[in-house]
Design brief:
Blueprint lengths: L5 E2 H8 L2 E3 L5 E2 L1 E2 L9 E4 L6 H6 L4 E4 L10 E4 L3 H9 L11 E2 L4 E2 L4 E2 L4 E2 L4 E2 L4 E2 L4 E2 L4 E2 L4 E2 L4 E2 L4 E2 L3 E3 L4 E2 L4 E4 L4 E4 L2 E4 L6 E3 L4 E2 L4 E3 L6 E3 L4 E2 L4 E2 L4 E2 L4 E2 L4 E2 L4 E2 L4 E2 L4 E2 L4 E2 L3 E3 L4 E2 L7 E3 L8 H11 L2 H17 L1
Parallel strand pairs: 4-5, 5-6, 6-7, 8-11, 9-12, 10-13, 11-14, 12-15, 13-16, 14-17, 15-18, 17-20, 18-21, 19-24, 20-25, 21-26, 24-27, 25-28, 26-29, 27-30, 28-31, 29-32, 30-33, 31-34, 32-35, 33-36, 34-37, 35-38, 37-39
Antiparallel strand pairs: 1-3, 2-7, 22-23
Length: 342
């Protein structure tokens, strides 16, 4: 494989950046400020790493104008260095080419429609009436259930299961172990036992979404579970039945959204956060890690819950006092009332 090289000037022109220093400096890879070498590019987006910038050996650094004086290397000036770095770094990612065609060990139903330009890997199963569009890549051991659709240029890395009535848009990336379209947790209690509600809906996932490893997305009870375009889900996330997630929303690992919740556009859900069922979050809401959303949020902004980390002995004392908060509040109210009557 031929080595990849770009000059600083080429990168600046390609991504609309300003170059300061040696525009002919060649870049063949990327790295951290502390680890990059003379032929590599790094970036500074957080001021707490300024000390590493001063001593970096990187040949090119992407940064803001105000950090230029501390840069010993050729600089590329960006409004958002992290975004610029992400775009540049993508030039150096080379995934193995997936050959078009169906692997001999794959099982494809007669009524399935698989584009000649799709790549179907070893031990995949494509069931009746499923559709795999042009340029889609199915890695080993993927299962495409009855009536499911994999959109053009989408990639299922390995062991991905689309259970039933799942539609993936174009350029969707699904990481290993994800399960999409399984039964939602729908139950009715009848006197002394549970009755399972049939899950008759599906799952619709928009273009350019990414689904993390071992993430699960349940199909709807009647209507579909929906992820709009450019939704990004980390690993081990649970999306329950009939959830609707707005475009460009991102969720970190182990977050969970209960049934029929509606998440707005451009939201950010932190790791291990939870959203209770049937709630609504407005657009541009941020929920910090480990928070539990117990009521609908109507205004954009950042929201938190939970108890911050404390030294254990202090936490134990505070936890013991927590049981008496109502008592303390009543006593304080009584004292304030007595004082006002004096």
């Amino acid at each position: 494989m031929n080595a990849i090289h770009y000059s600083a000037a080429e990168l600046a022109a390609r991504f609309g950046l300003d170059v300061r220093g040696d525009g002919a400096r060649m870049v063949s890879g990327v790295g951290t400020l502390g680890g990059a070498g003379a032929s590599e590019l790094s970036f500074l987006s957080n001021s707490k790493y300024t000390a590493q910038l001063l001593s970096t050996r990187a040949g090119v650094v992407v940064l803001r104008e105000e950090n230029l004086a501390d840069c010993p290397a050729t600089a590329l000036i960006a409004r958002d260095p992290y975004v610029a770095y992400a775009r540049i770094a993508a030039l150096f990612e080379r995934l193995p080419a997936a050959p078009a065609g169906v692997h001999p060990s794959a099982v494809v139903a007669a009524s399935a429609r698989v584009s000649a330009g799709a790549s179907i890997g070893p031990c995949c199963v494509i069931e009746a009436d499923a559709v795999v569009e042009d340029g889609a890549v199915l890695g080993p051991h993927c299962i495409i259930g009855e009536g499911c659709t994999v959109g053009a240029q989408s990639r299922l890395v390995a062991r991905v299961t689309l259970v039933t009535r799942v539609i993936l848009g174009r350029r969707v990336l699904v990481h290993p172990g994800a399960v999409i379209g399984s039964d939602g947790f729908g139950l009715a209690f009848d006197t002394d036992h549970w009755i399972k509600l049939p899950q008759l809906g599906g799952v619709r996932i928009g273009d350019d979404c990414e689904i993390g490893a071992n993430t699960t997305i349940d199909r709807g009870t009647l209507d579909d579970t929906v992820l709009e375009e450019d939704v990004r889900l980390d690993n081990q996330i649970q999306i329950a039945h009939n959830v609707h997630v707005g475009a460009h929303t991102a969720m970190a690992g182990c977050a969970a959204v209960a049934g029929s919740a509606r998440i707005g556009r451009y939201c950010q859900i932190g790791g291990n956060a939870g959203v209770l069922g049937h709630l609504e979050l407005a657009d541009r809401v941020t929920i910090t890690a480990k928070s539990l959303v117990t009521h609908s949020i109507r205004e954009p902004g950042e929201y938190s819950s939970g108890v911050p980390l404390q030294e254990n002995r202090l936490w134990r004392r505070n936890a013991a006092r927590f049981k008496h908060l109502d008592e303390y509040a009543r006593r304080l109210a009584a004292l304030e009332k007595d004082k006002s009557n004096d």
